[in-house]
Amino acid sequence: MTSTVTSAPPAFPLVREDPLLPPADYVAWREEAPARQVTLQDGSMAWVVLRHAEVRQVLEDPTISRDPSVPYFPKVRAGQTFNRNDVLLNHMDPPLHGRFRKMLAPWFTLKRISALRGEIQATVDETIDRLLTLEKPVNFHREFSLVIPSKVICRFLGIDYEHHHDFERLSAVATSASATPEEFGAAVKELMGIVASIVDEQVDNPGDGIVGVLATKYKNGEITREQALSHVHVLIVGGHETTAHTISQGMLLLWRNPDVLERLREHPEDWVKAINEMLRIHSVADGTMTRVTTAEIDLGGVTVPANQGIIPVMTPANFDPRAWENPTKFDIDRETTNHVSLGGGIHSCLGQNLARAELELAFETLVRRVPTLELAVPEEEVVFTRDGFVYGVRDMPVTW
Predict the structure, then answer these.
(1) Does residue 248 have a pLDDT over 90?
(2) What domains are defined for the chain?
(3) What is the DSSP letter of 90?
(4) Is 196 exposed, middle or buried (0-12, 13-18, 19+ CB in 10 A)?
(5) pLDDT at residue 53 is higher than 80
(6) 15: Cβ contacts below 8 Å, ≥ 6 apart
(7) CA 270, CA 172: separation in Å to the nearest integer?
(8) 74-83, 273-282, 365-374: which range is least confident on average?
(9) How much is the pLDDT for 388?
(10) Cα(101)–Cα(97) distance, rounded to whole angstroms?
(11) Of the candidates 94, 135, 159, 152, which has an alpha carbon nearest to the alpha carbon of residue 397?
(12) β-sheet bridge partners, residue 47
């Protein structure tokens, strides 16, 4: 009598062999099927969605939930303990989601962000002025890419920039899939402690940013203290970490494609298109769009039962040849507005107008003012996070 040994589904998340391309296994999985089961770090199972059409289907399906309180919600990172569906916009379902989205959305309208472009430009210019005074080689990610979104989000929130070192240090751990449960928990606890002190200070003396608004709403009993703290926390982390990685990886992409870089120098009006394409290629927050099914769904012929963890994965979807011809090419003339790097449906990125403005002004100004900027080391010596959750740069020496 023989027995059959069934192997567990493959591990998720995986790291990229090339920082600007999906992991090879993700590509292989995508070509086998639009969705498949994987094993998460805690040993639980979930479904990953890999093709562009099916990823958009999941993102836009209002019956698929982001409720982390259910036991089958997929926890991509070991040590992740958040299990509330009533404190944070990212994990709220309708109708509560609509209430909080409506409360925060006016701060991120195109009109409001357009009015801030002068301030963002001043921040970019100040950052370049300082960069040019530093001894070379310079860690571009720390001294440029992180500085701009950190300063902008602090101003936007109405908090002192003096906190930025702690924000950057703790956000790097909180967004890392390779952090141990103890490291992750300690980073979140410390960051929430800083956030609590900031919000509490503005309960009676509100500033002119989002923190002041949330603190006032908490004081008036419109929201809870935990809701106020959680939203400030996620705006701090989301407001600088992914934008900074996009700037650093964007420069790598431009150096790999000098013809595109030269075109953008000569035609700066094309930066809007270039940034759309960068967002598609970078797919920085690869494993963050976690969800759960509330009913059986069909994904391109793959049946996913109800009550299953489900994770739409950005990189294989954004490089899906069914959606884009020659998807590995950096083509700023292609139609890329349908990529999934900014999410989709009711949970699409709230701060995307702000991020686009920062990216456009940062790249255009840097390329114009420092035309000789280049890597000071071979690309293989650039230090990446390489942990498969939020992907990006940590150390990128440059010179000019």
Answers:
(1) yes
(2) 24-327+340-399 (1.10.630.10)
(3) G
(4) middle
(5) yes
(6) 23, 386, 387, 388
(7) 32
(8) 74-83
(9) 67
(10) 6
(11) 135
(12) 37, 310
DSSP of 182-236: HHHHHHHHHHHHHHHHHHHHHHHS--SSHHHHHHHHHHTTSS-HHHHHHHHHHHH
- The pair of structure tokens assigned to 312 is 């739409």
DSSP string across 335-394: --TT-STT--GGGS-TTHHHHHHHHHHHHHHHHHH-TT-EESS-GGGSEE--SSSB--EE
The encoded tokens of residue 271 equal 């930066």
Which of 300, 320, 342, 382 has its CA nearest to residue 57?
Answer: 300
| Residue carrying structure tokens 């952090």 | 179
Q: Which residue has the tokens 């929430």?
A: 192
Identity of residue 67: D
On the question of pLDDT at 4 being above 50, the answer is no
Distance (Å, whole) CA 144 – CA 363: 11
Residue 79's pLDDT band (cuts 50, 70, 90):
low
Using DSSP's 3-state secondary structure scheme, residue 80 falls into coil
How would you classify the pairing of strands 397-399 and 393-395? unpaired
pLDDT in tens, 355-390: 999 999 999 999 999 999 999 999 999 998 877 678
The whole-angstrom separation of Cα 267 and Cα 359 is 16
Q: Which two structure tokens, joined as six digits, stand for 381? A: 């010596």
Two tokens, residue 387: 């942990």
